[in-house]
Amino acid sequence: MSNLLETARAISHSLLSIYQEEITDDVLLNVIEKVKAMNIIENEYFDVNELFEILQADFSIGKGEITMLSDDITPWLKDEKTNIEFELWNRYKLDMKKNDPSFPIDDLDDFTDKILDKCENPKKPGSWDRRGMVVGHVQSGKTSNYVGLINKATDAGYKVIIVIAGTISSLRRQTQERIDSGYIGRNSSAFIRDNENKIVGVGKYKADTDIYSLTSSYYKSGDEGDFNQSVANRLNIPIGKNPVIFVIKKNKSILENLIDWFSKDINAKIVDGSPKLFDVPVLVIDDEADAASVNATKTIEEIKTINKLIRTLLNLFNQNTFIGYTATPYANLFIPQEYNEEITTTVKHKKYKIGEDLFPRDFIINLKAPTNYIGAAKVFGLNNTEEKEPLDIFRVIDDYDPPFFKVVNKNNKNDLPEYLPQSLEKAIKSFILTCTIRRLRGQENKHNSMLIHVALLVKWIDCVAFLVNQKLKIYANAIKSDDEQLLKELEELYNDDFVSTTENILQNIDYKDNRIKQHSWNEVKSELKNAVSKIEVRSVHGTKSTSNLEYHNIDEIDYNRHEKGLSVIAVGGSRLSRGITLEGLSVSYYLRTTKMYDSLMQMGRWFGYRPGYIDLCRLYTTEQIFEWFNHITMATEEMRNDFDQLTVTHQRPKDFKLKVRNHEGLMTITSLAKLNFSTTIHISFSGTNRQTYQLNKNKSSIDNNFNALKNLISTIGFPESKNRIKSREKIRYLFYPKQNIEPICDFLDNLRIEQPNIKNGMFSDYIKAQFKEKNISEWSICIVSNTDEEVFIDYEGNTSRDKRKPNEKILLVPINTKNENLNLGCSIRNQRKESLGSDYYIISKNQIDSLSDRQIDLTVSNFKTAEEIKKQRALEKKGLLLIYLLDPRGARITNSNTPIIGYSLHFPTIDKEEKVSYTATLNKGFDEELQEDDDSPINDND
User: Fold this and answer.
1) Using one digit for the tens of pLDDT, what is the confidence trace for 424-453?
2) At what angle do helices 484-493 and 422-440 cross, to 10 degrees?
3) What's the whole-number average pLDDT of the chain?
4) Which residues pair with 546 in a beta bridge?
5) Positive or negative torsion for Cα 152, 154, 158, 162
6) What span, in angstroms and rounded, lies between the C-alpha atoms of 625 and 397?
């Protein structure tokens, strides 16, 4: 940071110190303007955007949160802090601030304190064993979190740190490099291979603690830097004295070698026939804890290899803390808590007790992302109670078959593609524009990445990379020679796509990003040559010999070697899903290729922090992936909310396990193999809101559902005058308090809805069960009518405000019963452009209901948040069915005036509910192997 910027920062802090109210983004911008006007050094100016980002971090604007469940763990860190010299943490803190002054280091300090407090105090005598889990978001900075935790844990007294860094060599090496820089302070490869003390990262700051790594970042063709007994013996580092760290791959032979090496330690003893290391506190971090570690078997006696070896490793130490880090924790929650303590395994001719399974029995910590994290909630518009659209970054692929096949199998796997579909050509052009615009925003030295994932077989990956490289060369040469045709195509793409998307993002992001702005085409055009000249194509797979390959650029993607930024198009298969972090990932081209659950959750690699360029990001994918990913993320968001609810009442990890098991989302996202030997779940809807966000477009379903509504009204009639609640002199609500449950259940059962988490009979069975037990005091029905005169119909989808056509008259639907007729106004939910070709009407904006609708039945109202409404509903024990008549024009149905019926169902929180049983079955297409894979890193583990 320059001296001028540091001075501006200090002055800003002084001005803000006297500010009495909440410090917001607008307050920061106001203060920065005052500092700028001071002209601190004449004719010298600081970067206003950079200062704004630094102050956001300093004052924790939009910070994340941490929630946790834990068993009976006695806090210890606060009392012990006076005895701990946090020298390693302090130098990590300094280095993080130096590398990125806007990094929210104070938040990380708080979060890692709370996580360390749930670990065992390493100075506690005797035997102890702690199991926990930290749940983050995909690409949300979990490595920074656990590197910070490792520093603090070592300061506190942990002597052995083992980081199990995924299943792929490139990920292990990448993690080792992060550990070298953020914890050890020297290049592990140089130290181990050449005995050279090459300082990196935190090593620039003095610390008395010497840390030794028995693994390194060295690589030649694979795992050379991973744990090796001969290397460890040569280094001869005593265990239990200086801190020792191992960064290992989740691999059978590596884990066996490490277990065998520890068992030979001079301080190891044989206890009950099994080696044991005493009084050496060990912290084991399992990165990607849901991959390969979980024992998905039918009995506790049958144990998968990786699971067995991790448990054996932990059981080797009498003092250990195990923490699994993951963004997709549900498989880990199904780990059984029961285990057979007598089961043993043999490693290198020695017998070991396997020990307890990896269920996080002691604590689960949920890292809630800060406001500038771009995740599913922003992309899909989930739980959005403001008038904000989802971020417009999806682009539908509908032209890929041919040259790519919907399914690559034994019949067509040798029919390699000979050209690229137009959608992929467009994606490559988008990436060129993205790299160009980032340069205009002062990010010319930042990394840029594009991901292409269309196949799993190496020969397909190789062929696609070759074709992409050919196309990129054509584009680069055309740009350098000022080819009019290509420049015209790029200009059209920029004007038609980028300008409107930037406008959408500026209107709909819920945080300030001053770097995002519109640019003229002439500005963009002037930087095209510089941007495209830096882009290269890498083929990402496990084959190291290029003799049988068409494309030879298979070098590891090492961003650290490119101080001025690497711009790369990465073409790969399975190794891209859990492999290297693609820095500056902006454009993804993703086709359905493998098991839907695994690939879709990992597809979230394009989630993350995108400072200054979220408006330039694009995800090209199919309508089906878009729909399925929507379902999966919806269920995931709901379960995260369940977690937060349980923390309020101080529940334990096993309670969350039960809550997740009783969530109907399991039938959407979970493999049967992970259901703890059972396919029956007992569904709970306590405290939930279930909405129809995917509705049928076919005429028979629309007619059927409208008839279901008319039958309901025929049964219950129109409400009395006082419950015909008006707005603008028109009926807004037909409100029916204290209703019998029979018409509600009949209505729900008679609807035709093909949404994975809605099945006929599921809600009505639950409502009847609660009625029988008197768990819900009353049910109300509310039919919502739109009182607008005109509505905006977005026939094109995602239309920017400046290109919108005039509003059209609202669709009024006549409803007649008992010789009375009422006209109800249809609500408009415009379907997004990405799903226009779908068989379904997919709703995202606000889903169905709004905050005002949700509290129509409550005696206390005017709440401003969904959480407040939920608490009041729990107090009053009321259930609510909201019914909406949706304008078919919003689904691009223009030949019918029959409304599409949707609903939102609100259940109160019930303390002792009566659950209903269902057999868990997979939805068609999920967990279904669709392609051969000869390059899966998972195959290396057994």
Assistant:
1) 999 999 999 999 999 999 999 999 999 999
2) 80
3) 87
4) none
5) positive
6) 10
